[in-house]
Design a protein that fits this description.
Chain lengths: 360, 360
Amino acid sequence: MKKLYFTPGPSQLYFTAEEHLKNALKHGVPSISHRSKEFQSIYAHTVEQLKVLLNIPDGYHVVFTSSATEVWERIGQNLIENESFHFVNGAFSEKFFSIIQNLGKSALKKQVIEGSVVEVETVLIPESSELISITYNETSTGASHSQNDLDLIRKSFQDQLIALDVVSVTPSVEIDFSAVDTFYFSVQKCFGLPAGLGVWVFNDRCVQKAESLMNKNMSIGTYHCIPELVKKSMINQTPETPNMLNIYLLGRVAEDMNKKGVQQIRQETNYKHALLQHTINESPYLSHFVEKENNRSRTTAVANTTIDAKLLTEALAKKGLVIGSGYGTFKNSQIRIANFPTHSKEQIEMLSDQILSLNI
Amino acid sequence: MKKLYFTPGPSQLYFTAEEHLKNALKHGVPSISHRSKEFQSIYAHTVEQLKVLLNIPDGYHVVFTSSATEVWERIGQNLIENESFHFVNGAFSEKFFSIIQNLGKSALKKQVIEGSVVEVETVLIPESSELISITYNETSTGASHSQNDLDLIRKSFQDQLIALDVVSVTPSVEIDFSAVDTFYFSVQKCFGLPAGLGVWVFNDRCVQKAESLMNKNMSIGTYHCIPELVKKSMINQTPETPNMLNIYLLGRVAEDMNKKGVQQIRQETNYKHALLQHTINESPYLSHFVEKENNRSRTTAVANTTIDAKLLTEALAKKGLVIGSGYGTFKNSQIRIANFPTHSKEQIEMLSDQILSLNI
């Protein structure tokens, strides 16, 4: 039985990914030199398609890392001299916070209970914090910020750098990235690609910050420090031999999404989100984990279960439908369902029908 | 026309790689959770096959990074408090040296001209150097060390850690890894896989060194520091969402190589090496770059050209045979030819015939 993955990343591959992978093999993409013109044009194509798809403002640099986890470390090395401030509301925002501490820097946080988001208006951030970190969509809990939150923070903190985690949300939800100085994601979520590639976007304020730390003789890392990444990106290359296959696939999938139209993807996301909300409302086994409707993620539906979550995931798995378990301590008491661009309306409808017809 | 890549990495995919990639897609490998039992068994299989193939001594840990370049940085963070010593004889050994300097640590080097290797007997290494770095096969020049060199260094420097770069040489050449404390490679060379995965192997002395630096409150990195990598490897996982597809493919290709027999691969390597040596001897356009026969790489043949190297590479490219240009300043005056396990005797014979019949 062919399985269908509704897990919140890694997830079902984007429906065109396999075809692109076959074409990549046919054209020898994994065998070409990462210093060749052929690869430079692949790199340029991917960046170009991402700029269109995400409406990346002029002057922002697009570079590649191996994961969003790596970006956390690189932000810590390149953009924070002494202190950062983190909005923490779940496992992933907490991990970024811990990484800064592990780098021997001072990380402050405003932490709220899982399933909620930090209320931006109430937060006091010291002037000494050089960078403010927000996780748009906390994949572990399904709690989501909004553009309004970003705009409020930007307005209040013009001097600080703002870093936005858009893992598992972009491009499914529209975000005006001019409100932040840097944002990043990995490709195994909404882009439906094999894991092993992170995308890091930052503006010139970030470049200047990294250079200022370097000029103070601080270590900002080596091959993946911002100056090296920018220098190579100018010639459509990477400092190391990168995951060329994934850079190629990302460009192709972003192009497909552009052809489909990002507005269409977002409308479908909203439709499928409404359907999943309805499913949680109607199922006797489920209830919403995120109380405030406005904060419920449109890409990662998270529900409490009245029975052992394993019974639900196993019942659906028997039908070939793979959904996510709760994260960490919620493993047995919650489920998580991805609503990514690869998941069609029909597939989400089928999943909804199956959930609502469960009799355990 | 289907191209055949004899470039020294990225190179031709291992001849079974495409089939394994198709199987991976069929079984949803890119979609499974990196925390699932399914992925844990993929991880365990890959490590097990590598241990057999490379005869990795007991007590050595096998972990995954995104590239060999990343391993350079991680060695610098985890295994060097103040000072390292590098055998430098080309671009790649030099890059590792630079990375240590960029980390703000003291890197010493013994540098010899490109095309040669450091004569181990003549090197004076201060007791203060905590780690000695050797590049077995300098891919930029085709100059190669030998097991004898490793044994000599080990004998003379028992207290220091010895780090061995085996990019573009393992498993094609037999190496007794008990002579070193850590070694590493990337998969786009002899393993014939898409780029984006590094393999890092180290013993418990390395673990202890990393822990001692951590206990001194030094920053040893974050998600990819040795203690985190070891902790996760114990349960066949990685700290971040890794390049799961490549970890799967590496296990399958290593298994294929084990089935074929590593001795067979090495015998074929020697045969093909002899053929390439003969080709360089006989061609009016070529001469050996590495003077000492013993130091000529068995996996990366490098030759000076009597005419612009581009004329040679282009003439061969017209026949679908892609060879490497010289590295860096040697771009127009040298060629490089990979002799990896995926290159069959027949393919190298064909390449040799084509080179020897060139009339430019």
